[in-house]
Amino acid sequence: MLIFIGPNRQRGNLHGFKVFPDAPAYKHKTYSWLFRTRRLPAATYIFTFIDRLHPRERRLASKIYHHINEAGAGFKALNDPAAAKNRYRLLRTLYDHGVNQFNAYLASDAPQPNRFPVFVRHLSVSLPPLTQLLENQDALDDALTELEQKGEPLDDLVVIEFCAVPYQGEFYAKLAAYRIDQTISFNMMLFDEKWYVKYRDVDHMPPDASAFEAKLMKENAFQDEVRRVFELANIEYGRVDFGLVEGRPQFYEINFHPHFSSSEFASKDPQRLENVTLAAQRRLNALNQLDQQTDAPAIANISDSEITAFRLRPWRNFAPQRY
């Protein structure tokens, strides 16, 4: 059994499991459930959306993460909520270790980037950038002042140096790869004429892109680089998004959430459909390896003053309202 821990609104990301008859048994539970339940059944627990948690919730979830991993046979947990790096810490770490050519800065620190252009994003949520590309220091200072005046807390904003080049013509490409415990799996590519590549129609791509994608898919490309990024990030399950600049991977963010959306399999391009099916099957195989077939009895949840306060004083916590 796999138990994904995350917000209710993300249950749809698992609907793609229905495409595969050999999908592992799984459940989706919320952090509110995790903090309230008295018993934890034997399973592999996958903590998702860690970056959305309040620090108090991360601390409490981390205690349960360690409790599960110390329970013995039949129990496993992935993604320590206290150790996993958020967007800013990840980008700064990758720059400091020479993995990325670009750096990131907290907006609250009155940053003066080493290179321009830059753009501004939220730190705690995966939403599109709040600005276009800003070409110089004056433009950045003006943008941060305007954002703060509009009510954006600067300590939840990160300034990122732009580092991307078109893949072909006007098309930019976003590559991706999953880590599922010890398995690294190259994922489908996304394409857009805009520098910020977000999901569009599965067949929106330049000519011959599916053939290039198939080559990378068969090679399970960039495994060593991707593994190092996840290890630096202290993340055991997730999807890293990256681009190629002069043939060198540049890593942009790691998403914790599971994604088996059925829209992946809507391609009308035979090669593209073969690619996404292969990528999904690899992820499924890795998840099946985590599906522990065990008769181990459930264990008691942690006994902790914070979890007691969570259960008895709902006005002092956030998870029921947000998740």
Automatic annotation (TrEMBL):
Name listed for the protein in its UniProt record: ATP-grasp domain-containing protein
Species in which this protein is naturally found: Maritalea mobilis
Organism lineage string: Bacteria, Pseudomonadati, Pseudomonadota, Alphaproteobacteria, Hyphomicrobiales
